[in-house]
Amino acid sequence: MFDLSGRVAVVTGGAGNLGREYTRALLEAGALVVVADIRSEIAAEVADAAVAACGSEAFGVGVDVASKDDIGRMTTTVLEKWGRLDILINNAAIDPKFDSDSAAQQHYSFEDYPLDLWQRSMNVNLTGAFLCAQAAGRVMVQQGGGVMVNVCSTYGLVAPDQRLYRQEGEVAQTLFKPADYGVTKAGIAQLTRYLAVYWGDKNIRVNTLTPGGVRLAQDDGFVQRYEQRTPIGRMANLGEMSGALLFLVSDASSYMTGANLVVDGGWTAW
Ligand SMILES: NC(=O)c1ccc[n+]([C@@H]2O[C@H](COP(=O)([O-])OP(=O)(O)OC[C@H]3O[C@@H](n4cnc5c(N)ncnc54)[C@H](O)[C@@H]3O)[C@@H](O)[C@H]2O)c1
Question: What's the angle, vertex CA 35, arms to CA 32 and CA 62, rounded to 5?
Answer without folding.
Answer: 135
